[in-house]
Amino acid sequence: MPSTSRVEAFPVNTPAASQIFTTVLSHGPLTRLEAARRAGLSPAAVTKAVRPLLEAGYLLEDANDEARPALGRPANLVRVDGGRALFIGLKVTGDEIIGVLADLCCRIRVARRVPLRGREPGRVLAVAAELVQELLTEADGFGVRVQGLGIAVSGDVDRAEGTVRYSPFLEWRDVPLAELATMTCGLPTTVDNDVRALTVAEQWFGDGVGLSDFALVTVGAGIGCGLVVHGRVVAGAHGVAGEIGHVTVDPAGPPCHCGNRGCVEAIAADPAIVAQVREVTGIEVADIAEAIELAHRGDAGARAVYAKAGEAIGRGIATVANLLGPARVIISGEGLAAYDLFAEQIRDAFTAAAFGSAARCDVHTRPLPFEEWARGAAATAIQSFITADPN
């Protein structure tokens, strides 16, 4: 494994420089005046922040003939050189690790999937190290250093400590994953909750660009939610902000693994849907794919289960809209494979439960493959690299 001596430091460490860089990263190319306006900084502060970034090659400046004033030279556009650095992102599921090699603009250059031979931390780290080594070898072909590693894991994750407090799918408790991965893989490592990591990618590079307040709701094996409030990804005091999967929407509903009843996740997550379809129809569907197929064939019981799931998701989203008033809620996750089965119920339940102007929230879907979750992990590594304050 390579040592961390290969990793270089980002050339600036001031809040203004980080702000300008992230502004250009998300919105660029921009003229300096436009970057100053978007970042809320003076042109002089922008010039001071941009200079070392240009000298180090992280920013490039090009003439923009379309922005030529009436007299004088054309204005210059500042943009991020995406090829200046590479990052690795890993998404750990219960049975495989998805890895990507991404550039500084979080564009995926290489993607790989490897199965897990077990869920114990040691086994997972061994597989992760092999995958990281494979991606580092791929990086050699680009002639650019890998500057960081991001790992996304479901569950209660303390990013500041780099610790997985509890991951139900992996059955982990208090695993110091960032420390272990740094020692094993030889790269500075950022560990975050998988939904929050995906939210970072959406905030900087996806459907959340330019929005100061939005939410990302993921539907699938679990029900997750990432929150951006006033431009900051919110983790909360204990790292569990946004757990709408454990908002109770039916007090008399089925038991949830969290110990409560009628949580959104207990009604609308894939395992809950499979269990309910078996119970309602008497058909032993093997997995969520068979449950979807049964519903698509018109089975009334299976379709009723999906209708109920859609209602629970819609009420959960309305809770987010009522509490935080986001401009947009993005629905994603592998559960969108069944979206046609419960889209109407999500929309109707949201409209019924959203209070007043909260109902104006833009709710739309964004199907994303698991490689995008790994890209989210890479985004957290980029974030850690360019700023000491991850928000």
UniProtKB/TrEMBL annotation:
Record PROSITE patterns: ROK
CDD domains, sorted: ASKHA_ATPase_ROK_CYANR (cd24073)
Coiled-coil stretches noted in the UniProt entry, renumbered to this chain: none
Gene3D superfamilies: 3.30.420.40, Winged helix-like DNA-binding domain superfamily/Winged helix DNA-binding domain
Similarity-based family: Belongs to the ROK (NagC/XylR) family.
Protein name: ROK family protein
UniProt organism field: Streptomyces cuspidosporus
